Amino acid sequence: YRRLHTKETRLSKFNQTEIKAMLGSYTKVLFVRDPFHRLIATFLQGMGISSSFSSFIQEVLDSGMHNGSMAWKPLVSLCRPCLIHYDYVVMFGFLRQELGHLLHRAGLLEGSLLPELTDSQVQWTYRWLSEQMFSELSAQQKKQLSHFYRWDLAAFPFSSSFLSD
């Protein structure tokens, strides 16, 4: 695209014609992750000021949709999958399989570019962490989180998410 090297990086800086031309000229890949797993990772990385997971979740819920951190905002509000036609949606937990396919489709040698990924270990660890941390939440927090992430849960196949229950 002709304005590829401009300093403007946000789509909102371009007009509709430029946005359409730009998006049409790129392969668009969206990486998605279970919202509850994103919350766990954010908490473990110390991005919240709370000392307990339950307090951190309350901080997230109190911040709301518009004042929240990008680390925990719903993906639908960040990536606009209903407005942007992504060519690929890659699910966290299936990275090895999906990245291999994506690299193959792009004509790249998949084996030489992929780091060693152990998806089954990651899935098992997050399942265990999810069980532990979900049990710390009140029924009200669980309900509010499911509501907060309702559009992510509707847009992406997070069938095993604790928030889907």
Describe this structure in words.
The chain is mainly alpha-helical. It has one domain (11-155). It has nine helices and two strands; from the N terminus they run αβαααβααααα. It has helices at residues 16-25, 35-44, 53-67, 75-79, 95-105, 110-113, 119-134, 139-148, 150-155; strands at residues 29-32, 88-91. A two-stranded parallel sheet has the order 1-2. Helix 3 (53-67) packs parallel to helix 8. The model has no long low-confidence stretch (mean pLDDT 81).
Helix fraction? 40-55%
Number of individual domains = 1
Looking at the structure, what is the overall shape? globular
The low-pLDDT segments are: none
Number of distinct helices:
9
Keywords for this structure?
two-stranded parallel ribbon, 5% strand, globular
Summarize the structure.
With 165 residues, the chain is mainly alpha-helical. 53% of the residues lie in helices and 5% in strands. Its EC number is 2.8.2.-.
